[in-house]
Amino acid sequence: MSKLKPIPHFKNEDEEAAFWAVHDTTKYFDTSKPLRIELPNLRPTTKTITLRLPVMLLYKLKRIANKKDVPYQSLLKVFLDEKLQERTMKA
To answer: pLDDT exceeding 90 applies to what percent of the chain?
Structure first.
C-alpha cells in the first residue's frame, strides 16, 4: 500500500467538512484496519412527523405513560421499537 497522506489540522468543523467533501478518505486512512470507536453522547437523528391517533388510543397511551412516569411520546417510541423488533425476528 502506498504511504498515507497526513490529515491536515482544521480551524473548525465547517472547514473539515469542506475538505472531506472533495478529498478521498482512502488516501488518508488505512481502510484495511478499521477502528472501533464509541460515541456515547451521539443521539440518533430524529424527524418530526404528524400522526393521527384515535382519541381513546391517545388517552390510553397517556395513562400508561403517566403510570410509568415517562413522556407519552417516548413511550410510543418504545412501543413502536418493540413491535418492529418482534417483526424483524419473525421475518
So the answer is: 69
pTM of the model: 0.54
14/19 Cα distance (integer angstroms): 9
In terms of residue numbers, what domain contains 36? 13-90
For the chain, how many residues are written?
91
What pLDDT digit, counting tens, does each position of 44-84 carry?
A: 888 999 999 999 999 999 999 999 999 999 999 999 999 99
Number of domains in the chain: 1
User: Do the domain assignments include residue 60?
Assistant: yes
- Is 67 part of any domain? yes
Q: Is residue 7 part of a domain?
A: no
Cα–Cα nearest to 64, from 72, 52, 53, 56 = 72
Cβ partners under 8 Å of residue 64, min gap 6: 75
